[in-house]
Structures are given as C-alpha cells and as structure tokens.
User: Fold these one by one.
Assistant:
Number 1:
Amino acid sequence: MMELIIEFAYTGSVNVTESNALRLFMAADYLCIEDLVQICCKSFEKLLCPHNCISIWQFTQNYHIPELQLKAFHYVLSHFEHVVFSEEFLQLSAQDVSDIISRDNLNVRQEAAVFEAIIRWITHEPQEREGYADLLLPKVRLSMMPTEYIQSHVLSNKLVTDNLRCQAMVSEVIECKDRILGRPRLPPAILLAIGGWNSSGLCIEAFDVRANRWMNITNLSERPRAYHGAAYLGGYVYCVGGIDQVLTETNSVCRFNLSTRTWQEVAPMHYRRCYVSVTVLNGCIYAMGGHDGRTHLSSAEFYQPETNQWLEIAPMHEQRSDASCTALNGKIYICGGWNGNEYLQTAECYNPETNQWTLISPMSSRRRGLGVIAYDNHVYAVGGRNRKDCLQTAEVYNPHTNTWCSVSSMMTPRCNFGIEVVEDRIFVVGGFCGYNIISNVEYYDSETNEWSQACDMDVFRSDLSCCVLSGLPNMADYTIPREN
C-alpha cells in the first residue's frame, strides 16, 4: 500500500483494483490523502454489484463518506431482488434487514419478493432468528399482495403459524383487504405523457406504475404542443418541434427542469418539424422527418446538449412524417409514416458510425401514426392507421434475422399515441381510436404475449409524446403521495 501511495504522490495516478481498493482506501484515509480517498470511492462505485454492495454500504458506516454510503444503500434498494441471493444479505443484522425492507423506494415488482427475502434470512439461522419474525413481517406490505398468495404462502408458512402475533396480523389483513388501501413502494421509473390535442397549456401527466395512478404535473407557462417529440436526457425533459396553438409548424425546442419545474428554450432545429420522430442515442437527441408546412421531410439532425447545437446527418431514403422511431444497440430504427402520397410500409436503420441509412425488411402493414419502441433486443411497431382504419395490430422486428412477425393485437385500436417501456412492459397511452380522442392506457407483456388494461389518464388526448424518467433524486415529487 505504501508503494502505491508513494507512486501516486509522484505520478498522480494509481492502479485501484477490486483486491486492493479497501486496503488502499484505509491507508489513504489514515494518511489524510484526500485525492486518493476520492479515487478509491469512485472505484467502489464502479465495483458495486449485488454480491458486494452490502459490504461496501456497511464499510462506509465506519468512515465519513456520506456520498458513497448513499449510493451503496441506493444500490441495495434498487437491486434488492438480486441482492437477497447474495451471501452478504444472509449476514445482515435484523435491524439492517428491517431498515431495508421498510423503505418506500425498495425496488420490487411484487411484494412477495420481500416476504420471501425475510423467510430466506430467518431460515439461514432459524434458532437465532425465528424471534424476529414479528419485527420483520409488519414491514412487508401484505395488503399489496394477492389474497390467494397470502393464503397459500404466508398463512401456511411455519414461521407465521408458530407465531400468534404474526398469525393475527396476517388474518387481519385478509379480513380488511377490501376496506384498506395499501401503501405501494415507489416505482424505479415514471412515465410522462406530454402535450397533444385536447389539453390546456402543455399538459403533463406522470404515471406511477406501482400505484397504477396518474398525477397531473402541468406547468401552464409553456405553450401547448402536438405532433411533437419528447426525450429525457441529462435530467431534463425535451419537447422537440411539433405544432403550436396557432397551428404553426415549429423548429423550437424547450426543456423542462425536473427539479424546478420550469421551462427553458434551447437551440432550435435547422428545420420546422411537426409529425417529427424523436429518440435518444449516445447522449444526443435525434429528430427525423416530419412536415415543415410545405413538404414531407427526409432530413434528420441531432442535438448535443453540451454545445447546445443541432447538426445535420445523412437524409433518410424516404420522406417520412407521422412515422415513429427508437434506438436499439447503437442504431436508430424508423418505421412507417406518410410521404404525402402513400402510407408507408417501409422501415430503415441509421448507423451513426458510418452516417448511413439502410432499408430493412418492410412491415407487414402500412402504418402512419404508429408507435415504435425497442424492447428485449427487438423493435416493436404498434397500431397506427392505414388508408381505411385505425389499427389494433402489432408486429416485432428481429435485427439479427431482418424479419417481422406478428404479436397479439391491442385491446383498443389507436393512432398518434404515446409509447414507452416501463418495468419490462410496453405501455401505449391515449391517441385517436378512429372516431374519438381517448385517455385509455394499456400495456403489453412479451412473456405472455398479452395486452392488459392500466389506469386511464385524467385527460383525453391524441398526438402526444411520452418519455420515461429514472434515477431522479426527487422521484417522490412525480409519484402519488404515499402519506395519503
């Protein structure tokens, strides 16, 4: 360690590895070498994984490094379903387990994972830990579990049946389940629905997937937009192009500060673009196609937040407005749209390394006003409309085989809607169903190949755009208040 420290004193660099990081940190801290302490802390952050995050978290409790302590604990909460299978989890104290599972921001898809975690922890040393069952079970949100699971897994578990207080607690939850509201955990990500027709101002609603509820977070100071694109990048939500309240195509771009809830204009695009297709790739926002008020565009450009500049890229093979796009594995895929003469069946792919567009296999249907989204190394094309009808159908593209195949159709036909992935499910939001603007929301589960209903938005709207927020320090500001 002294050799490494002396080398650092002369060169300003040091080789921090998984095997030496802890000892090097302790030596640097003892000798008050603050720069080296910070380097070690950065290394700990990069080394965090489900098998060491608990030991790093506990280690930080003995030193004054609050930032690393917070990040390590947040990692434990965020990756809980993997952390519980580590050896470190089994060595936690009862109080530490209680502190972890009581948090609103514990990331679990199903509350059953929390119950199974405490059973695993207790049965690791049953004689010493059985007495902690009535300390830990109240921290499980039993009222969020299906009654069938409680009856078949919780009430029948020996740790519950042998503990009268636990039995009474679980029985009370079952008896009162229809009359009490559970307190859901905070979601790891929030779905935003932004703008569109039939809203006052630039209406924004946030969907809390854990509570299955929408919350209105509209800031009426920003002008209304429709046929625009939305993107989340660097802690900001960007609204790109579209059409404003006087039905004028715009090249303006504004961004929403999620901390202050204020809007700010940034550099405009080179072209006016409504019906624009927008996605994020490699830290940049790409805007493709659209309509400038006179013609349907094949041009494309991207925005660099660091320089506040838009730069043009190679044009697409087709003029496309009212298309949809997504980013997958370092490339952009854009599908369908309208070229002014026909509704398009074609799709193409952009490689930023070569600045080239390549036509890929066409979809099985012509689609305008569709939704395109990447999920599980595939590209999904959903809904839209052809010359006659709004579509319910959906299809999926495999980039490795360059082929499309059909998946289950949506429950509701729709075009010009929002689409995003939240917690491994594809959500479609609002739109036009062929005869009316809708607030309807549904989601697709690729494992079951089924669509299911989610909570409707409070606002009926079409021609909106969606994006997903994650990793916000103030995530609770965009969720349904848990205290209520």
Number 2:
Amino acid sequence: MKDDTRAERQRQIELAAYQVLEDKGFAGASMLAIARQAKASNETLYRWYGDKTGLFSALVARNAADVKAMIERHLCAKTKPVEILERLAPALLDVLLGDKAIALNRAAAADSSGVLGQAILQSGRESIAPLIGATLERARADGVLSFDSTEEAVSLFVDLLVGDMQIRRAIGLVKAPSTADTENRAKVALARFQVLLAP
C-alpha cells in the first residue's frame, strides 16, 4: 500500500475510533466495532495497531504530534527558550482543550481499568513534558528563569496554563475556547510563570 493511501486509511480508522469512543465509551469500543465503522478489516487494525490499547495510544500520540514536533524543531534550531514557550503555550492549550483530547479524557474517566488513562499519560504527557523540561532548563541556563526541580517547573507551567479548563471542558461546563481566548490565556499564564520563576 502506498504511503499516502495508508495515511488516508489510518485517518479514516482513527476518525472512526473517535466516533465509536463517543458512542460506546472505551470499554465498548472494540476493534471490530471500529473496523466496521471505518469499513476496514479487523485484521488491518490489528496489523497496524497491535490491539485496542495500541490504537488509542496512536490517537493520543497523533493528537500531541504537532506540538511535540514544534518543540523539537525549535530546540534543534536553538530558538530562544522564551520564544519557544510563547509558541508552545497556545499550541498546547489548543491540543489539551480540543475536541479529540476531551473525547479521550472523558473516555478515560469512565474506564475503570485505567488502560486508556495510562495510554494518555505515556503517549501524551510523558512524551511532551521532557521537551518542556529541556526548554525550561535552557531558560535557566540563560539566566531567564530560576528553579531547582525541572519536574516541578514543568508542572507549574502546565498548571498555570491549563488550570481546571480541561476538566471543565470534559464535564461540559465550558465550550472550546476561541483562538483569541487561547492566545490571551497563554500570554497571561506565561507572564505569571516568568514572575514566579524570575531569577
């Protein structure tokens, strides 16, 4: 199968997975149900994703891929850390408060096995947090920020940025923010972060 054809089929399968997830929850989202929704063979899903956990891990990873690639690109280009954070903050908010992340988080909350939550942790936060940490460490080396624990600094950055917005989205209290809302929240969070970790 050609790469572009496979990429399109994967996109269709992953859209079908979100639809089945919304309709049936994680427990009811069988590979067979997703295959039927996508009009694909069950064998194709197992061959490409391994199992249901592999498929949903792929959804999480794809949702975070653009943000991850952006940070990696800027770290490689030796972009100033503060500039990376200025670009990262609204992009990360867009991902975390977007419909796909909210669908995955709602399903994870209802999944008593904890399997989906673990997939979100490993393919989402654990893939991006080290890159945020590397950015913050560069800012510290440049004398822009001051902190002892990188892990705590990353948590502070994410807490100031996201706050309770993701859970409020997940339980239906607020709608997805506009681009202007996201950019404003990111700007305020970053300003507070820099004040709190000022050298």
